[in-house]
Design goal:
Layout lengths: L4 H15 L1 H6 L2 E6 L2 E7 L13 H16 L6 E10 L8 E12 L2 E9 L5 E11 L11
Antiparallel strand pairs: 1-2, 2-4, 3-6, 4-5, 5-6
Length: about 150
Protein backbone atom coordinates (compact mmCIF):
# COMPACT_ATOMS: atom_id res chain seq x y z
CA UNK A 1 0.00 0.00 0.00
CA UNK A 2 1.38 3.38 -1.02
CA UNK A 3 2.10 5.95 1.65
CA UNK A 4 0.15 9.21 1.65
CA UNK A 5 1.97 12.49 1.06
CA UNK A 6 1.54 13.30 4.78
CA UNK A 7 3.04 9.94 5.80
CA UNK A 8 5.99 10.44 3.46
CA UNK A 9 6.60 13.91 4.92
CA UNK A 10 6.43 12.57 8.50
CA UNK A 11 8.72 9.60 7.82
CA UNK A 12 11.21 11.84 6.01
CA UNK A 13 11.18 14.29 8.93
CA UNK A 14 11.61 11.50 11.49
CA UNK A 15 14.63 10.18 9.60
CA UNK A 16 16.16 13.66 9.36
CA UNK A 17 15.42 14.60 12.98
CA UNK A 18 17.18 11.45 14.20
CA UNK A 19 20.42 12.80 12.67
CA UNK A 20 19.89 16.56 13.08
CA UNK A 21 22.22 17.40 15.95
CA UNK A 22 22.41 21.08 14.93
CA UNK A 23 18.68 21.75 15.35
CA UNK A 24 18.61 19.79 18.62
CA UNK A 25 21.64 21.71 19.92
CA UNK A 26 19.89 24.97 19.00
CA UNK A 27 17.02 23.92 21.27
CA UNK A 28 14.55 23.72 18.38
CA UNK A 29 11.48 21.53 18.30
CA UNK A 30 9.91 20.17 15.14
CA UNK A 31 6.29 21.22 15.62
CA UNK A 32 4.71 20.26 12.29
CA UNK A 33 5.62 18.88 8.89
CA UNK A 34 3.69 18.22 5.70
CA UNK A 35 4.36 18.06 1.99
CA UNK A 36 6.41 21.20 1.28
CA UNK A 37 5.84 22.66 4.75
CA UNK A 38 7.46 22.58 8.18
CA UNK A 39 7.26 24.49 11.44
CA UNK A 40 10.08 24.63 13.99
CA UNK A 41 10.34 26.74 17.13
CA UNK A 42 12.82 27.63 19.84
CA UNK A 43 12.96 29.73 22.98
CA UNK A 44 15.64 32.44 23.03
CA UNK A 45 17.97 31.62 25.92
CA UNK A 46 20.95 33.50 27.32
CA UNK A 47 23.44 31.63 25.12
CA UNK A 48 21.49 32.79 22.03
CA UNK A 49 21.96 36.50 22.81
CA UNK A 50 24.63 38.79 21.39
CA UNK A 51 26.39 41.97 22.55
CA UNK A 52 23.17 43.96 22.04
CA UNK A 53 21.32 41.61 24.41
CA UNK A 54 19.06 40.36 21.59
CA UNK A 55 18.97 37.04 19.77
CA UNK A 56 22.00 36.66 17.53
CA UNK A 57 20.96 36.72 13.87
CA UNK A 58 22.87 33.52 13.21
CA UNK A 59 20.53 31.60 15.50
CA UNK A 60 17.46 33.08 13.82
CA UNK A 61 18.95 32.12 10.45
CA UNK A 62 19.65 28.60 11.74
CA UNK A 63 16.07 28.18 12.93
CA UNK A 64 14.72 29.37 9.56
CA UNK A 65 17.22 27.21 7.66
CA UNK A 66 16.16 24.14 9.62
CA UNK A 67 12.47 24.77 8.86
CA UNK A 68 13.43 25.19 5.18
CA UNK A 69 15.37 21.91 5.30
CA UNK A 70 12.44 19.93 6.70
CA UNK A 71 10.02 21.47 4.19
CA UNK A 72 12.13 20.77 1.11
CA UNK A 73 13.05 17.26 2.28
CA UNK A 74 9.42 16.26 2.83
CA UNK A 75 9.14 14.16 -0.34
CA UNK A 76 11.59 11.39 0.65
CA UNK A 77 14.32 12.82 -1.55
CA UNK A 78 17.62 14.20 -0.27
CA UNK A 79 17.58 17.96 -0.82
CA UNK A 80 20.23 20.51 0.15
CA UNK A 81 20.41 24.28 0.24
CA UNK A 82 21.65 25.97 -2.91
CA UNK A 83 21.21 29.60 -1.83
CA UNK A 84 19.53 31.25 1.17
CA UNK A 85 18.91 34.83 2.21
CA UNK A 86 17.30 36.45 5.21
CA UNK A 87 15.94 39.88 6.05
CA UNK A 88 15.85 40.72 9.76
CA UNK A 89 12.85 42.86 10.66
CA UNK A 90 12.65 42.96 14.47
CA UNK A 91 14.82 41.60 17.27
CA UNK A 92 14.17 38.37 19.10
CA UNK A 93 14.53 38.89 22.82
CA UNK A 94 15.52 36.71 25.75
CA UNK A 95 12.57 34.45 26.61
CA UNK A 96 10.81 34.89 23.27
CA UNK A 97 9.46 31.77 21.60
CA UNK A 98 10.45 32.08 17.95
CA UNK A 99 8.53 30.07 15.35
CA UNK A 100 9.75 29.46 11.81
CA UNK A 101 7.03 28.47 9.34
CA UNK A 102 8.31 27.22 5.98
CA UNK A 103 6.19 26.84 2.87
CA UNK A 104 6.97 25.74 -0.62
CA UNK A 105 6.67 28.38 -3.32
CA UNK A 106 7.72 26.23 -6.30
CA UNK A 107 9.33 22.89 -7.18
CA UNK A 108 10.72 22.43 -10.68
CA UNK A 109 13.14 19.80 -11.91
CA UNK A 110 15.68 19.30 -9.15
CA UNK A 111 15.18 22.81 -7.71
CA UNK A 112 12.78 24.45 -5.29
CA UNK A 113 11.98 27.81 -3.72
CA UNK A 114 10.76 28.08 -0.11
CA UNK A 115 9.79 31.02 2.08
CA UNK A 116 10.15 30.95 5.85
CA UNK A 117 8.45 33.43 8.16
CA UNK A 118 9.96 33.77 11.65
CA UNK A 119 7.74 35.35 14.29
CA UNK A 120 7.59 35.54 18.07
CA UNK A 121 4.86 34.39 20.46
CA UNK A 122 2.98 37.70 20.01
CA UNK A 123 2.94 37.32 16.24
CA UNK A 124 5.60 39.99 15.67
CA UNK A 125 7.45 39.37 12.42
CA UNK A 126 11.12 38.81 13.27
CA UNK A 127 12.55 37.76 9.89
CA UNK A 128 11.74 36.64 6.36
CA UNK A 129 13.94 33.94 4.82
CA UNK A 130 14.02 32.61 1.26
CA UNK A 131 15.68 29.33 0.46
CA UNK A 132 16.56 27.81 -2.88
CA UNK A 133 17.01 24.06 -2.81
CA UNK A 134 18.65 21.43 -4.98
CA UNK A 135 17.76 17.73 -5.03
CA UNK A 136 20.69 15.30 -4.95
CA UNK A 137 20.83 11.50 -5.03
CA UNK A 138 19.26 9.48 -2.24
CA UNK A 139 16.19 9.04 -0.07
CA UNK A 140 15.51 9.30 3.65
CA UNK A 141 13.91 5.88 3.95
CA UNK A 142 13.23 2.81 1.83
CA UNK A 143 9.73 3.22 0.47
CA UNK A 144 9.84 -0.04 -1.48
CA UNK A 145 9.90 1.78 -4.83
CA UNK A 146 13.64 1.71 -5.38
Amino acid sequence: MALSAEEIARRSADAMWARDDASKWLGASLDAVGPGTATLSMTVETHHTNGHDICHGGYIFTLADSAFAFACNSYNRIVVAQHNSITFIAPGRLGDRLTAEAREIARFGRSGIYDVRVSDQKGTLIAEFRGNSRMIDGTHFDDGNG
